[in-house]
């Protein structure tokens, strides 16, 4: 965990510094007639994030020196799993946007159920069909709110 | 007085009561499903509330919140897996009692205790919030900044294991709240030229992404391939084992009263939450008991202590929201979103500007408690069945609901995309033990915080001595520093 904290702290520190020196100046307009510039507030937050991230790294390094590290909370299989679920959801996002809500929704639920280990045919067909159709009926028909 | 009566009267329509009852039913059902909880259900249901009247919409969400607190006790009793984090303590006595063949008795005791604690808390809310709002109106920008600062220190100090991580999460939330048009000058800030971001990052996308989808992604990893089921309810058992007699309920009256008071006090302090309340309520009951060794073996008093305390938080959590505009927990943070959509700004002026609506909401809260008692009592067996739905079916459906909710509640597919990005943020935060509660509440508070901070900086001219002229602000700053020192120091010691 401590190694992961060091990595996270360094990443956050880099993020904060990039934001402070590159992104905020480029992406925040300058106001003419205000006593405090619009960039002040995000800059205060970012400087504090930078300082706390550095402190997190220091504390984790000290803890690592004091004793053995526990298992990392993020392992390769976690990343693989996240990427796989991400691909399923991204595909469903595109399908919902391009083809339509029901088709995309059926595909999304079916693929995720399969990924989670459901192999029995009845739930594998019934749930993916019923879930989007029910949502569609509630919003599109009952509340008259259009879905994609 | 006229406003109060008119407000309470408004809620007594079939339309409003039906939505309260629907909210309670959804809340109990969702709470009963392990891995899902009330704030998740509220996040998904917020878009639905947009299409209702302000009173029905907010009452619907409050019904969900109240129902889920009770629903969480069902899997705690049947599965020894709390449906909601605050129900974890309920499992200590609830599950042993279920294993003795009395699951219905355990669930009914949880239900009655929960309604007792919740009703007490609502009465306190109704009684004190208007006078407190009058006091809050006298607070200037310096006092508001100090109160928000104190709230943030409590949230970051008490929640999670590391104050440093809590503060990083909180300031990350504040940073994201700065995206969009700046309040005073109207200039764009960190929008990257994206038109949809001019009004800020949608709360619904951040909330659903970090809170619901992040949790689902972690849950999917754990639940993949598993098929755990709850204990079945034995309908053939003795009648006495399936009900709670009045004598049994009355024997817990001291415990119920103590826990209701504990939960209400904790609920009124932003950020601490139901889990801490139930633990303190349970510990206090155990200390006061003549036979403390019986706790943990299936004692009704243990269930009463935990449930009355965690449910008492629900009503009291609205005290800081309605009087200061500060959300006490995640559910209250989502309620702010619903309030704003209906052109209602939570804060001390709410009683002056929207008094009738607020008393209508108070009325809805009392009705929600009655619905909880009635629907819970009649439907416990049915709700118990939902605890048996496997996670590998629940999670995919929740993903679809989140995508649908984000689409309907925001700017279409753009909000869905933002939500999906924040789901990865939520996943990472959980994996690295950054508290999501601190992040979400700080995100909501970020915009509340900016204007008074700006005013304070101008008024004080950057001089810290300015605080000496504002004793209330000074007191809150000192309290905040004590919290930082207390929790920061304690954590450092544990690291060493």
Structural features, described:
The complex is a heterodimer of chains A (148) and B (496). Chain A is mostly helical. Chain A has two domains: 2-66; 76-142, no CATH class. In chain A, 76% of the residues lie in helices and 0% in strands. Chain A has five helices and no strands. In chain A, helix 1 (2-27) packs antiparallel against helix 2, helix 3 runs antiparallel to helix 4 (101-115) and helix 4 (101-115) packs antiparallel against helix 5. The two termini of chain A are 42 Å apart. The mean pLDDT of chain A is 88. Chain B is mainly alpha-helical and 496 residues long. Chain B has one domain (2-495). Helix content of chain B is 73%, strand content 1%. Chain B is built from 22 helices and two strands. Chain B has a two-stranded antiparallel sheet with strand order 1-2. In chain B, helix 2 (14-32) packs parallel to helix 4 (54-71), helix 4 (54-71) packs antiparallel against helix 16 (330-341) and helix 6 (90-99) packs antiparallel against helix 7. The longest helix of chain B is centred in the first third of the chain and has 35 residues, at 103-137.
Q: Please trace the helix and strand order of chain B, writing H or E for each element.
A: HHHHHHHHHEEHHHHHHHHHHHHH
Instruction: Give the fraction of residues assigned to helices of chain B.
Output: over 70%
What separation lies between the terminal Cα atoms of chain B? Answer: 58 Å
Shape of chain A: flat
Report the sheet-strand fraction of chain A: under 5%
Oligomeric state of this protein? heterodimer
Mean pLDDT figure of chain A: 88
Please mark out the parts of chain A with pLDDT under 50 across 5 or more consecutive residues, or reply none.
Answer: none
Strand-pairing-aware structural class of chain B? mainly alpha
| Rg of chain B computed from alpha carbons, rounded to a whole number of angstroms | 22 Å
Distance between the termini of chain A: 42 Å
The two chains with the largest interface, and their residue counts, are:
A-B, 68 and 62 residues
| Structure summary, number of beta strands of chain A | 0
Task: Enumerate how many helices of chain A there are, as a single number.
Answer: 5
Number of E strands of chain B: 2
Mean pLDDT of chain B: 83
**Uncertain residue ranges of chain B:** 491-496
- Largest sheet entry of chain B: 2 strands, antiparallel
């Amino acid at each position: 965990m401590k190694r992961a904290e060091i990595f996270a702290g360094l990443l956050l520190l880099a993020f904060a510094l990039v934001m402070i020196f590159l992104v905020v100046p480029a992406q925040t307009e300058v106001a003419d007639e205000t006593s405090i510039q619009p960039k002040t507030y995000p800059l205060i937050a970012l400087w504090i994030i930078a300082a706390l991230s550095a402190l997190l790294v220091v504390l984790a390094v000290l803890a690592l020196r004091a004793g053995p590290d526990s298992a990392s909370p993020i392992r390769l299989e976690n990343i693989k799993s996240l990427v796989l679920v991400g691909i399923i959801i991204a595909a469903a996002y595109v399908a919902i946007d391009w083809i339509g809500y029901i088709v995309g929704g059926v595909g999304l639920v079916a693929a995720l159920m399969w990924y989670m280990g459901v192999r029995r045919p009845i739930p594998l067909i019934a749930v993916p069909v019923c879930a989007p159709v029910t949502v569609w009926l509630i919003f599109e028909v009952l509340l008259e709110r259009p879905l994609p | 007085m006229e406003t109060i009566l008119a407000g309470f009267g408004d809620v007594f329509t079939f339309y409003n009561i039906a939505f309260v009852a629907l909210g309670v039913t959804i809340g109990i059902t969702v709470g009963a499903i392990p891995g899902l909880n009330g704030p998740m259900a509220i996040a998904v249901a917020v878009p639905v509330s947009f299409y209702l009247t302000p009173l029905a919409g907010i009452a619907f969400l409050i019904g969900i919140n109240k129902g889920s607190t009770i629903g969480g006790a069902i899997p705690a009793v049947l599965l020894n897996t709390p449906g909601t984090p605050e129900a974890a303590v309920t499992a200590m006595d609830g599950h042993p009692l279920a294993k003795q063949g009395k699951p219905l008795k355990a669930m009914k005791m949880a239900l009655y205790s929960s309604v007792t604690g919740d009703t007490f808390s609502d009465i306190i809310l109704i009684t004190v919030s208007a006078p407190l709002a009058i006091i809050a109106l006298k607070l200037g920008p310096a006092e508001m900044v100090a109160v928000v600062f104190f709230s943030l220190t409590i949230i970051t100090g008490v929640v999670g294991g590391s104050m440093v991580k809590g503060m990083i999460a909180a300031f990350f939330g504040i940073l994201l709240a700065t995206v969009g048009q700046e309040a005073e000058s109207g200039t764009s800030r960190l929008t990257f030229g994206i038109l949809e971001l001019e009004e800020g990052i949608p709360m619904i996308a951040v909330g659903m992404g970090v809170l619901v989808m992040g949790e689902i992604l972690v849950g999917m990893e754990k639940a993949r391939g598993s098929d755990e089921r709850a204990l079945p309810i034995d309908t053939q058992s003795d009648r006495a084992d399936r009900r709670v007699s009045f004598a049994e309920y009355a024997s817990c009256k001291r415990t119920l009263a103590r826990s209701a008071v504990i939960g209400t006090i904790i609920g009124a302090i932003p950020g601490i939450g139901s889990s801490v309340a139930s633990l303190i309520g349970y510990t206090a009951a155990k200390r006061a008991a003549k036979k403390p060794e019986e706790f943990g073996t299936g004692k009704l008093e243990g269930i009463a202590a935990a449930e009355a305390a965690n449910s008492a938080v629900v009503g009291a959590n609205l005290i800081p929201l309605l009087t200061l505009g500060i959300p006490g927990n995640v559910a209250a943070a989502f309620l702010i979103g619903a309030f704003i959509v209906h052109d209602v700004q939570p804060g001390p002026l709410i009683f002056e500007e929207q008094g009738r609506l607020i008393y209508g909401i108070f009325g809805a809260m009392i009705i929600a408690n009655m619905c909880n008692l009635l629907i819970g009592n009649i439907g416990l067996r049915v709700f118990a069945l939902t605890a048996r739905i496997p996670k590998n079916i629940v999670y995919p459906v929740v993903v679809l609901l989140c995508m649908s909710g984000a689409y309907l509640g925001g700017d279409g597919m753009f909000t869905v995309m933002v939500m999906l990005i924040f789901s990865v943020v939520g996943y990472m935060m959980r994996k690295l033990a950054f508290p999501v509660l601190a992040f979400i509440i700080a995100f909501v508070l970020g915009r509340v915080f900016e204007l008074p901070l700006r005013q304070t900086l101008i008024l004080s001219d950057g001089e810290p001595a300015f605080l000496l002229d504002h004793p209330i602000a000074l007191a809150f700053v000192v309290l905040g520093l004590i919290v930082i020192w207390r929790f920061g120091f304690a954590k450092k010691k544990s690291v060493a």
